[in-house]
Structure formats: C-alpha cells, structure tokens
Amino acid sequence: MGIEDKAPGFLLTTVEGVFGWLRQASLWPATMGLACCAIEMMAFGAPRFDAGRWGQEVFRASPRQADLLIVSGRLSQKMAPIVRQVYDQMPEPKWVVSMGACASTGGLFNNYAVVQGCDHIVPVDIYVPGCPPRPDMLIDAIFKLRKKEVMWHPVGKHITEQMEEKDELVAESPSTLEMKGLLR
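RESULT FIELD:
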C-alpha cells in the first residue's frame, strides 16, 4: 500500500531519472576520425545506418557542443595531446567510445609512434572491437553506453566526485606522465 496504489495515473521517478532519459535521446558526438575507422564512423551517420533515428546525427566540430567523443583509428604520439585537449574542452557529462583495434590497443602498430590504447590519454567508457568495426557495431556500443552510463549518470554534487575519480585514473597512467615529460 504505497503512494502508487493511492494515486493511479501518476508517474514517480527521480530527478536523475528524468535527466538521464532526456540525455540519452540527445547524444552529440565530436568528430575524431584518425584513420580508416573514421570511414565506418561516417557511414554510421549516413542514410543506410541513419544515426538520426536516435538523435545523434549531428557530428559536432566544436568540442564545446559535444558530449560523446568517438576516437576512431590509430592514435599517434603527436595527436595524443590534441585528443586530450578536445576531451578537456568538452562540457560535463562526457563519454568516450574507443572504436577499432588501433584505438583500443594500438592494433598491429606496436611501435614508438602509436599510443597503445587511447585509454592512456582519456578515460574510455566503452570499446568497439574490430578492424575496422562495422557501423552497426558502433550503433550497438552507443546503445549499451546509453543504457549503462548515460541513463544513470549522477546529477548534482556527486558528479564532481565522479569526474575527479575518472581523471585520477588517466593521470596515473605512464603514457600520460611520459607526454607531460615527467617520466623518461
């Protein structure tokens, strides 16, 4: 005998639930196509796969208008600081998808010029495997991200605690320290 029984026709939820529901229908990805996986990322927005059906057809060229960073392709050491700068310029809440084997693990490029996974530079929320991954794999990953992360993202004072925890994990990475010149 709760309030649900006494007041039929009312929808009970939390503020975080309402914000999550609104947020999941309006993800705006930033363009970060670094190599061949970018072709598949472009196909994701094309008419055949039509990301516009889920409110994410607009790829933003400005990081200040985006809340989803899709890193697609191999990430070179020269490009790593730029990717981090784009990530830092994105407003909170923000999410990162690592698309393809090269972005996730360095792929077949096991050398000094390629970062062995973009999770050394930015905190990654979901990985899309494959070389190159199909656009429908990216669609599936974004649906999983929406269901797992976006819908239940905290609102209010708890959001700053979560942001600090994510940044601490990336800050302690040896590759990040190497980029800053602190580790030789």
